[in-house]
Batch of 2 targets.
Target 1
Amino acid sequence: MENQLLQMVVDGLLMGSIYALIAVGMTLIWGVMNIINFAHGAFLMLAMFLTFWADKLWGIDPLVSLPLVALIMFFVGWGTYSTTVRKVLTGPILAQLLVTFGIAIFLVNLAVFLWSPDYQQLRGTLISGTWRFPLFVVSEAKVVAALASVVVFAGTYWWLKKTRLGRAVQATSISKEAAALMGINTERVFGITFGVALALLGVAGSLLCNFYYVFPSVGDMFGLLAFAIVALGGFGSVPGSFLGGLMIGLAEHLGGLYLGPQYKYAVIFIIYLGVVSIRPKGLFGW
Amino acid sequence: MVTKIVNQRQPTLGGHRRNKSKVKIDHLWMPAAALLFCILPLVYDNHHFQHVLILVFMYALLGQAWSLAGGYAGMISFGHIAFFGFGAYTSTLLFLDTGLSPWLGLFAGGLISAMFAVLIGYPLSKLRGHYFAIATIALQQVVQILFSNWSLVGGANGLSLPLKSGWGYFQFSSKLPYYYIILGLYALSVLVTYWMIRTKPGFYFRAIANDEDSAKRLGVHIARYKSLALGVSAFFAALAGTFYAQYVLYIDPASILNINMSTIIVLVATLGGAVYLFGPLVGALILIPISEYARAWLGGTGRGVDLMIYGLLIIIIVIYQPNGVMGWLQRLRNFRRRPGPTGLSIQAQQGKP
């Protein structure tokens, strides 16, 4: 017999790690450039549609197209940075918020224009079965996505801590001026950070396509959850956003179990509000 | 020394008299604009045009309300639609359950909304910048979800008001009374803003927005003044909410508590210039007609072309005018009238031996 509580905990942790994977890009952008990216959900949608059409038109499985989507998203990110975000970097905080908001409106409606507002789903991908355990059932696609999330987190952490470029990113996030004086090309660092953030989002989008519908406003709720995760985890903290993701995933599933599925997002946001009213900068933020 | 001399000499170069006449013109445009807006719907008697004008002033009122908290006090909120919703729901529920006139419901909604804002203002006052913005998004989401599932307020189906025409019911068959009511409410919000930014709270708001730590050390009670800003702001947002409910006669969480409408409020205030008295009106005058007429012309295709253009416009305006249209007008005027502070300092530097 399946145990409902255990099932929800397992599902919550799996979904939580996927949420964390979506949020890590936002953490990077926030931490390095001090911008909150309202278009995050819209970029996720873009990555999902890229994966979707790669499979639909050329029969490339999401797992195969993943690196390609990540690469395309990297350049989309760099391009977005250099054409729009760069111009408001020193402007008022509201201008930064609204530019990314404008990008989100544009992308979502571009998707409506090009691909219609319908819900679509890929069927028969390489990983689409389920695994049965004595006490719970898991979908293969979610397990793969969660494992990938752990790998990506470890990789991002390693990249930031150990590589030359990662350290340049860290230095820039601490002080742009000091980093520039040390000979770091901060413009390039910002562009790369935006690109890497969206590449990670591309990975998330590809994996999500294995078990989730694709439609133009698919990113809205993921984007909002990413906000909560990033703020819960704390300013630019990569481990914080992983923990925040797991917490949000658990809260969503347990809240859905005990209070009814219609309240699951309310539970998430109430927990989030409770945490930040005690720790204003999140669990890992100072 | 030299700087001082240049500074003193400046007004005697004939600038003084010229400035005086300019001041007169500066103050004349206000009654002229007021008169224009009073007679505009009478001159051009077109229903859709009147509808757009009503929306312009409704968003101007919302933007004005928002700018008190978001502009002057620096509390960027994406949750103002919740206050708008409280106003709409309070007056509608009071009318449906007790038969209370929406005119009283208007102020009841305002007060309830303000009380709620003060209540959440205290715990949220610790949050700054992005953190505050995200918390208000969370708040908006919670309110929308709860209202969608609360059967007492109609749940996801919403509430509709019975058709009853007349002043007592705050319902009219013509658009003109609605227009003058929203114009009046907007004027009220401008007067209150004008009064507030010139008295102690307004200075405290700006001190908090500029540098919260310094303001705190100088003795500003941060939580109290942030809550005050949010409270007054919520009051006016709720007035717009009641007005909307009476104008459309139907409210439901999906259409009046959603995040997109919340963001339009921020856009209206910011594009116009959130810290200028008439900034929100200018923002609404630009944004609302564009979105309404684009929807009328291009929205019929149902493929989001109007919203794509809208998104592009936002990006372009924000990149080129990050301080809003009013900020740009101000710079133009300053540039024309007198050499600005930079001009003076250049002269001063040149005068130095």
Target 2
Amino acid sequence: MTTEEGTLFRMLEWARRNGDVTTLKRIRVIVLPLTVRERIILDKVTPETAVSREYLSAVRAAIRETVGRECPV
Amino acid sequence: MTTPFQVDVDVDHRRCIVGAEPLIFHCHHYNLALQQALIDAAYGDFEPVLVGAAASVAHAQLTSLFAQGGVAGTAERARVAEELYRWAGFGTLALAGLGPEGGRLSTEHSHYALGCRAKQGVSKAPVCFFASGFLAGALAAIHGLPDGTFRVTHSACMACDAPACVFELTPAAGGYELYASPGVGALTTHAPRPIPATPVDYDGILGAVSGLPLVGDAHGTIDAFGVHLTRHFANYYNRISFEFLHRLSREYGEEGLAAASETLVEAGRVCAFNTFGGIMQSTEWNALIRPSLASREDWVHGMVAVLNAFGWGRWQVVSVSESDAEFVLHDDYESVGYRAMYGVSERPVSFLAQGGVEGLMTLVYLAGIEDAPTLDADFYTKVFSADVSYQATPTTSAAMGDAVTGFRVERVG
């Protein structure tokens, strides 16, 4: 089941703005198995990219871990 | 104070060797960043790699030292291990309470816990994987037992706000991976390149930095250049880095390879920013080196002269300007270690060096290091996420069979 387009993109943008320069690289490692399963490339996500709810949940947890705050998106 | 072990310096190859293990300088920022990469990849079960890599180097080194010095008694062996650990900046260990049946040890001085608190604050989970492995490997070596004899549990950690780090050892196999340390590895006969015109006194700086008393204090801490330094095991860094690289690329293909490579290069940038940056703001730099620097290019030469004393191999500047630079590394520790552990590589593996040269150029040409900025996390993010950056591309790789490892660094944006 896929979510609406743009959610992942907006979450990563929020993480980029609110984390540090290492945040997106850490998230990439943390969610790597699920990224491969989704058949996407995390640093090429666009506003049109749609992914599963499970994947969004994993990215949300990774953002919480690396940024130290809940992502509001 | 003399050490109860021999420290050999191989100036020709830019190596420091203790008990047949090459030791290199790295700071807590790099140590924590590299370890965090493996912890982040929780699906890879890397804790047994972190502990096992430490156990293997400690066991190999101490076994060699005990044979080298004819150290036969367990009490004397324990003293050598304690002193080595403290001297190298890892903290302190009191091994007297441990025997062939294992035991319990606590310490209030542990490099990884101290570094974690300084860098990241309170941790949710224990962080002293290296200390755990060192203890397991050391105890086995002290009693003449094989590596892997002791299982270790890190039951409390100061990084988690515990009053002390606690380790419990039991005579049971398993719990971490066993590796054979390759020792120094195969080194080459260096053919140094001509050094571009610079007033920097390479040999004088190498001699001066090599003579600095960079050894652990009574708490096993080396506080220098604004960081906590360690004289760490090249074979530890190499093992955990390359196991991380191999597993991610094997399990997750190109995306895994890219994620691992990017993370390892980032750890190199972190190292450069904090350690190189700290050195270039230090009283030693200002007294010994800065007076001879006439240009920003000289700052690059000066820092490269210093890091030839780190044990990382012979680093050379082939050319340098604000727009680009070329660096050549003879016997860089990553390539030498890779070939000794895994054979010829299919790709360049000098990730620390790649991040290091990018970080050095960034510090000198973008971060205004000569104006002594505050080197904190916010400034790191500011300079490394700017529109203008320096990107290094490997041109040759000793791990792939080339004579040297080379990088071309270009300013982009």
